[in-house]
UniProtKB/TrEMBL annotation:
Gene3D superfamilies found in the cross-reference section: Winged helix-like DNA-binding domain superfamily/Winged helix DNA-binding domain
Superkingdom field: Bacteria
UniProt-recorded name of the protein: Helix-turn-helix transcriptional regulator
InterPro entries found in the cross-reference section: Tscrpt_reg_PadR_N, WH-like_DNA-bd_sf, WH_DNA-bd_sf
Residue ranges constituting the Transcription regulator PadR N-terminal domain according to the UniProt record: 8-82
Organism: Pseudahrensia aquimaris
Amino acid sequence: MNVRTLCLAILNLGDSTGYEIRKLSTEGHFTHFVDASYGSIYPALNKLEVDGMVTSREEIQVGKPARKVYSITDQGRAAFAEALTRPVGKDVFKSEFLLLAMNAEIMDPAHVVRAINAQIDYLTSELAIIDEAQGSVDMEGADWVAEYGRTCIQVSIDYIKAHRGSLEAIAGKRFGEYANQAAIAAE
C-alpha cells in the first residue's frame, strides 16, 4: 500500500480536504496503515486528480481562505478496489521502548522503571483512542480491525505488566561500568 491508496481509502468514505486526510492518517482510523505526511499527501492527491481518480472543488469559508475538497470518482473507486487485491507488504513495527528494554542492563534502573510505566501509559492511551473511534465508521471491517488492534495492544500491556519484574532485574547490571566509561570520556 502507498499514500495514493490511503488517500483513495479515506475518500471512499466521503469527501475530505488534504488536511482532513492528514489528520485521519495520523490521529484517526487510518493511523496504522501507511505513513503519510503533508509532503506526500498533496502530491498524491494532485496525481490522483490528474489521473481522473479524484475531483476537487473549492469551498468558500467566511473569514478564512477557501478550502479544496476532494471527492473520489468511479474510476478512483475501481482503482482502490484493484489496489486492495495486490499482495500486502509486511507489517512494520518499530519501538524505541524495545530498544531501551534490550539495553536495560546498561541503564539506570530508575530510568527503566519510568520507561516501563510510560510505555504502559502510552499503550493504555492507544486503547482509549480505539475505544473512542469504534463505531464511528460505518464498515463492519473497521470493527474487526479495531478489535484486532485492541487485542494486540492489550496483549502488549499484559506482557509488560506480567514481566516487568524480570526487565527491572536486568536494569542496571552494567550501569556502573558504562557510567564510569562516560566519566572517563568526558575528562
